[in-house]
Design goal:
- The chain is mostly beta strands and about 150 residues long.
- About 15% of the residues are buried.
- The chain is about 10% helix and about 40% strand.
- The chain has 2 domains: about 80 residues, no CATH class; about 55 residues, no CATH class.
- The protein has a 5-stranded mixed beta sheet, covered by helices on one side. It has a 5-stranded antiparallel beta sheet with strand order 9-6-8-7-10, with no helix packed on it.
Length: about 150
Amino acid sequence: MKVYESEDKIFIILNYVSNDLNFEDKNVINKFVKQIFFKLKSYYHLNVNGFYKVKIYPNKLGLFIEMLKIDDDIYDPGEVDFRVIIIYNKDIYFEYDDYSLIKNKNVFFYNGKYFIDIKYIDNYIRYCDYGSIVLLDDIDLNRCIYIYDNN
């Protein structure tokens, strides 16, 4: 499990997910998200309290979870409430600074950064410390420069 934290957002990458996780069962998903919050508090020592919108992106490579803090004004320390949204078939990209890190014909350049769909990266977890995970919503594809490297 890899965890990235910003001011109001937590992004989690799980490269292994049990086959027992049924995305159609609301109780199973809520229990799973509660376990994630418990891990964030106990193992990663993150201060999670308040109301969160939790977006889960199932992918053949694992699970990508985005936790956006909506409100914490009416919550006591340690209290957490959440709403879960499951989003299927979402393109997830790896953003990085140095092109030599991952040379691939599927890389594009946008706003001073390089991007590649994670499905084109072998063992993407090993690169996580050198960049960040972003969703296609954050990228204007009309303003990208595609890089075609024959190597």
